[in-house]
Write a structure and sequence with these properties.
- With about 110 residues, the chain is of the alpha+beta class.
- The protein has one domain (about 5-105).
- The chain is built from 4 helices and 4 strands, in the order αααβββαβ.
- Strand 2 (about 75-80) and strand 3 form a beta hairpin.
- The mean pLDDT is about 85.
- One of its GO terms (molecular function) is DNA binding.
- Keywords: DNA-binding.
- This is Cas12f1-like TNB domain-containing protein.
- InterPro entries: Cas12f1-like_TNB.
């Protein structure tokens, strides 16, 4: 799970209505509880971890594809200029989050 700056997202007038409706804080609490209940380790990476900008195959940082604007959300495909990987942006980010090595454990498993 990526740590989100929910207050910052709510400050953006284009994102605020959607963020309010999603109830992200509630979802995180619910997910944490479910992971504890079922003995699953839940990890959280930094807000600044570039999960959508890293190639999940070769690790190349693709700064050119995304520039930190609202238009980025319209780009649904990740294309690596180094190894040629072409994959759904969310799938690529999920793989990167799974492979992350710098994270905080929110639920411990035994």
């Amino acid at each position: 799970m990526e740590k989100l700056n929910i207050k910052g997202m709510k400050a953006n007038p284009k994102l605020a209505p959607s963020i309010q409706k999603l109830g992200l804080a509630y979802f995180k609490t619910w997910l944490t509880w479910q992971c504890l209940k079922h003995g699953i380790e839940l990890r959280e990476v930094s807000t600044w971890y570039p999960s959508t900008k890293l190639c999940s195959t070769c690790g190349t940082y693709n700064r050119a594809q995304f520039h930190g604007t609202m238009a980025d959300l319209a780009v649904r495909q990740f294309n690596c200029p180094h190894c040629g990987l072409s994959i759904d942006r969310d799938v690529n980010a999920a793989i990167n989050l799974q492979q992350a090595t710098d994270y905080t454990v929110l639920t411990a498993t035994e």
